[in-house]
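User: quick one, sequence for these tokens?
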């Protein structure tokens, strides 16, 4: 894949970039190692000062960097501004709390008395240069949610960003430099995916995090496994959205629209499979389809647009294939199911779509629909809803709408996912761990769990 900015709203190539040569990669790896030697020794107060400065700069840059993101991957400019603001918040959150999250822990002396220790403690030390392989869909947020905790922990970062967001990738490197981070603390590697293996095998790179598709995760994890290097994987999702008999159907349907089409439908934690109890099925489905039909599709730079284009032509054709396969096998199209009027041959748009009558023989039942396409299922009981929700190779998050405490407890106990969001949609927050199970990956980002993933959890045992 060429490293280039191609405007998804028009299909026009705006800028292309040369990939780094192996000599240039070597220079950056050497710089990362050198920077780590110093950075690991800095105090939390110094790290916090730098990260606050980067957050302040990013806050000033929001209008400009939002436009860049929209130009590169097509998200609406309003959502791009919100993404950048969320990054500022996460940076400040970690700047203010990392020292506490990584404070030494002192096990109860009674629990370790027979170890012979006069004193024992657990110390969180950094690991070294970490490679971050990142996707285009939240081109700032995915990177910041790795970089903020990693830098606060004393690690340094090497970013291999998706090939279609090079300007955002370069902006990030420049942001950290402008904030005063020494050269080498956070570097962007403009490289294609074929060059990742060599970087990951380099002994100076000690660990990797990847957010992206299952094939990319498998590839990076297998190389890292071969090298015995730690990885965190945040992969795809096909989150269920259960609407149960006692739900507030009006709110559930309104939120369902946002949950499905946020980021033009290209979010790992978007609700994708709407599993609705027969008692509320007609009321929910009618409102949901109406809401999806009413969305304004168009120019992502226009503040009144709800849904912009998909990020690439390939992304749109993959999505259209999933819809066509389902329709060929008998799924009903409640709205959409095609390119929107006026955009048949301009940009990579796809109309917000609701499909009903989906069954397990259809590809869309098993695969991730990465665009504004929802599938709705009718179920007769909570048991059936939970079984259908778990009938997926993914396990990222899940959503449940109910006023019944028993339903909530049952879902928290049985839904196979890294999150259960009740009467709301899944969203990440710096203070809450984020990640999945099954084919959605492993490890956690954000909160204490996220910052500790790339730490050497060190046992210190002292006899007198
Ligand atoms: P992708 O094709 O897997 O790309 C993600 C990153 O991996 C890019 O930097 C890509 O580089 C690189 N890559 C691709 N194949 C690779 C390989 N074999 N070895 C090493 N690196 C490789 O995914 P995407 O299309 O950008 O993003 C969409 C996917 O990400 C969806 O499945 C979505 O659900 C998932 N996602 C998950 C989360 C989460 O938190 N769980 C968040 C956001 C997105 P190139 O661009 O150069 O190919």
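Assistant:
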């Amino acid at each position: 894949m060429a490293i280039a900015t191609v405007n998804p709203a028009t299909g026009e190539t705006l800028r292309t970039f040369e990939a780094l040569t192996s000599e240039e990669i070597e220079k950056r790896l050497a710089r990362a190692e050198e920077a780590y030697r110093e950075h690991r020794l800095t105090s939390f107060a110094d790290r916090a000062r730098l990260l606050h400065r980067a957050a302040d700069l990013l806050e000033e840059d929001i209008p400009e960097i939002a436009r860049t993101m929209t130009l590169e991957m097509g998200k609406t400019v309003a959502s791009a501004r919100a993404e950048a603001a969320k990054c500022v918040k996460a940076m400040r959150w970690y700047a203010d709390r990392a020292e506490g999250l990584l404070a030494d822990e002192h096990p109860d002396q009674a629990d370790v008395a027979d170890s012979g220790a006069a004193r024992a403690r657990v110390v969180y030390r950094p690991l070294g240069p970490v490679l971050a392989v990142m996707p285009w869909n939240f081109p700032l947020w995915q990177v910041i949610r790795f970089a903020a905790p990693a830098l606060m922990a004393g690690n340094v970062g090497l970013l291999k960003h998706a090939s279609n967001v090079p300007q955002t990738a370069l902006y990030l490197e420049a942001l950290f430099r402008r904030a005063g981070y020494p050269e080498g603390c956070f570097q962007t590697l403009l490289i294609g995916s074929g060059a990742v293996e060599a970087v990951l095998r380099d002994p100076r790179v000690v660990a990797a995090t990847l957010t992206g598709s299952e094939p990319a995760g498998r590839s990076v994890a297998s190389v890292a496994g071969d090298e015995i290097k730690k990885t965190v994987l945040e992969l795809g999702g096909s989150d269920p959205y259960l609407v149960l008999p006692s739900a507030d159907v009006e709110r559930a349907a309104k939120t369902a629209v946002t949950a499905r089409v946020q980021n033009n439908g290209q979010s790992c934690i978007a609700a994708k499979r709407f599993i609705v109890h027969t008692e509320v099925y007609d009321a929910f489905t009618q409102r949901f389809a109406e809401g999806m039909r009413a969305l304004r599709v168009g120019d992502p730079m226009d503040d009144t647009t709800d849904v912009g284009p998909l990020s690439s032509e390939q992304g749109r054709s993959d999505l259209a294939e999933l819809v066509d396969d389902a329709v060929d096998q008998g799924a009903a199209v409640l709205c959409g199911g095609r390119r929107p009027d006026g955009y048949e041959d301009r940009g990579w748009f796809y109309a917000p779509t609701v499909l009903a009558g989906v069954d397990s023989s259809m590809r869309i039942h098993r695969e991730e629909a990465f665009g504004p396409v929802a599938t709705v299922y009718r179920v007769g009981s909570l048991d059936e809803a939970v079984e259908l929700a778990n009938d997926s190779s993914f396990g990222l998050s899940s959503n449940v709408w109910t006023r019944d405490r028993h339903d909530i407890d049952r879902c928290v106990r049985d839904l196979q996912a890294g999150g259960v969001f009740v009467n709301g949609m899944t969203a990440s927050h710096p203070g809450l761990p984020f990640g999945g199970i099954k084919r959605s990956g492993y490890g956690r980002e954000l909160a204490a769990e996220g910052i500790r993933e790339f730490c050497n959890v060190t046992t210190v045992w002292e006899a007198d």
